[in-house]
Specification:
With 268 residues, the chain is α+β, with helices and mostly antiparallel strands. It has seven helices and 15 strands. The protein has a six-stranded mixed beta sheet with strand order 1-2-3-15-7-4. Strands 5-6-9-8-10-14 form a six-stranded mixed beta sheet. It has a three-stranded antiparallel beta sheet with strand order 11-13-12, with helices on one face.
C-alpha cells in the first residue's frame, strides 16, 4: 500500500504507511518540515543535537519531538529512544529500566520492542532505513534502525525473533520500511559489496561508476530480510522515496555531519 503525506495543524509534515494505518497501528515517519530548528537543522530536527559546529539545542529538539507526537496522535505516551550504534542489539523498552528514559543518555541499540501501550518506541534516521513492525493481535511492536551495517548484522531478523519470543506471530506481522537513501545515490565500495554478498544480499549491489564503485539498494535488501524472516510480501509496505533526492527529507550523505535527523515511531 502507498505511504500517505499528512500535515498537522502546527505544520508538521509526516508520512503514514497505508498498511499499518489500515490495521489501526499508531505510527509515523517524520520529514524535515514543521519544526522550530534553524538552518542547517531546519526545521523538524529530532537529533543529533551535538553535530560539529554550533549545535542545535536540546530544548528545541525536544519541542520538535513534542510536535511530532501531537501530529501522529501519540502525545502523552512515554517516548523511548536509543543511542544507535549500527549493530544488531535489540532492547525491550517495557522490560529494561535503563531503556525507558525520556532524556539522554540513552541505552545502546538499533532496535527496540515494546508491548506497553503507554510507550512509543522510535529510531532516528538521515539515510539509513527505518523499519516499523507490529503484530496487531499480540499488540507487540518494534522500531528498527537499519543501515548497511545493521542489514549485514541482520538486525531485522534479530528484532523479529525478539518479538516472537514475546508471543508475537510472524504470520500476523505487518511491516513498513520508510524512506532511506536510494540505490542511485548510495555509492559504496568493495567492502560493502563483499559484506552484503556474505549475507546473501549480493543481488542488491550493482555496478556503479568508476570501476571499483558500486550502488546498493538498501530498501530492497531490508525488504528481502523481512521476507526471509517470514513476513509475507503483502504485509510489507516499502517507501521508495530517496532521502538524498528529496529536499523535504534530511540526508547525511547529501548534507554532511550538520544534517538534522528524522524519526520513525510506533506504539502498540
Amino acid at each position: 500500500m502507498a505511504f500517505e503525506r499528512l500535515a498537522s495543524p502546527e505544520g508538521v509534515v509526516w508520512l503514514r504507511s497505508g498498511l499499518l494505518a489500515s490495521r489501526g497501528i499508531p505510527h509515523g515517519f517524520s520529514t524535515r518540515l514543521g519544526g522550530e530548528s534553524p538552518a542547517p537543522f531546519d526545521s523538524l530536527n529530532l537529533g543529533l543535537a551535538d553535530a560539529p559546529g554550533e549545535p542545535d539545542a536540546w530544548d528545541r529538539v525536544d519541542r520538535n519531538w513534542a510536535r511530532l507526537l501531537r501530529a501522529t496522535g501519540l502525545e502523552g505516551r512515554v517516548l523511548v529512544r536509543l543511542r544507535q550504534v549500527h549493530g544488531h542489539a535489540v532492547r525491550e523498552a517495557d522490560r529494561e529500566v535503563d531503556v525507558a528514559r525520556t532524556a539522554p543518555p540513552f541505552a545502546d541499540g538499533d532496535a527496540i520492542v515494546t508491548a506497553d501501550a503507554a510507550q512509543v518506541v522510535s529510531v532516528r534516521i538521515a539515510d539509513c532505513g527505518p523499519v516499523l513492525i507490529s503484530d496487531p493481535q499480540a499488540r507487540i511492536v518494534a522500531a528498527i534502525h537499519a543501515g548497511w551495517r545493521g542489514v549485514c548484522a541482520n538486525i531485522v531478523s534479530h528484532a523479529v525473533a525478539r518479538m516472537v519470543a514475546r508471543g508475537a506471530k510472524v504470520d500476523r506481522m505487518v511491516a513498513a520500511v520508510g524512506a532511506c537513501i536510494g540505490r542511485e545515490a548510495f555509492e559504496v565500495g568493495e567492502d560493502v559489496k563483499l559484506a552484503m554478498e556474505q549475507v546473501g544480499l549480493g543481488q542488491f549491489v550493482v555496478p556503479g561508476t568508476g570501476g571499483t564503485r558500486w550502488r546498493a539498494d538498501l530498501a530492497g535488501a531490508i525488504g528481502e530480510q523481512l521476507l526471509g524472516a517470514g513476513i509475507a510480501a503483502a504485509r510489507i509496505d516499502l517507501d521508495r522515496r530517496c532521502t538524498v533526492a528529496d529536499p523535504d527529507l534530511f540526508s547525511y550523505r547529501r548534507d554532511g555531519a550538520r544534517s538534522g535527523r528524522m524519526a520513525a515511531l510506533i506504539g502498540p
